[in-house]
């Protein structure tokens, strides 16, 4: 991607701070409880040093006008007891700027205590998530792990008080953005094990690239969810077992002030999407409400349904219709032969039990002859073998369709001779180019560019 780590603007590391007037903890340089006194060289800069452990039992806020730098190997550990009498999930609010500067060897970690990082807690929603408000100008999430989020928004939750989410109705995504003028780079990171969406964008320009999303959403929700007021490149990501879709692309909320959502989504690999969701929803990609979305060169593996674009008969209708200038094509839909262990039957259910059957299903939101006209789609059991992507280490016929526990040993590069290496879009049309592929996005005086379009399906080619 041509990205490099940012250098801190501060000449020495600052004491830990919770970004508020609370100073009920102290710092020994290695571990801190709720933050310590703020005494930075630059009063607008806060630095949490490399390999520091910060334990938060209260809501944390990066104040407007200030920047928090979190260095490589730092761990931010959230209490699962909650705050106050309501046990409000601990929220990490960004009113200023946030720069997470992890490395491959030493990622930044946002999590809970190690004893609570269990399979039983994957969808427990143990803390609130990172909420970048409408005053957050910039955010970098690089080589960072964010996990066990999705606490319920309740009365007293900062996001409810700010009007971002509704108490009693919403749960926290792992990352929320809410500034139409904000700039966000989320790269080389892992967003996993959350009750709600991995990323929920209500505004801003963003590069979302080269990440792993896993187990996003318990009862609904997506890996990446984009609304009006956003301009986004989503590329090179692996999305494993989102409850509903890997990509939910919508211009919901569009107005004169909040512009149409613009998305380029290419070279992503989406696996096992939709099987944990009832109804005829979900399965990989959903585009609606006038979003201008170009979705191409993606590899869908064992997803419940194909890309859906409802109400094509109402084009460019911001309330209902699919934007007919969008291109959702040149994608590859692969299917194993295994049957789902959850099959939803009934009046409002599809009864789909195999990925190939879901791809062949007569869905009311499949726009045949327009969407995926040139895509490779496995629609019969006898076609599964020839369309097997031949991953280096992932058996598409063995992993259960409803599995959501990500195996670190999986390798989604493909072997030589894989069918996903040919037939993809060549990336030449001007309207299909990444929004931030040339000029890039400048965050903290560093310019980041989106990945180039690769002429193969999915996030990875051969090694």
TrEMBL record:
InterPro entries on file: Pectin_lyase_fold/virulence (IPR011050)
Listed Acidic residues bias regions: 29-40
Protein name in UniProt: Right handed beta helix domain-containing protein
Region (Disordered) residue spans: 1-45
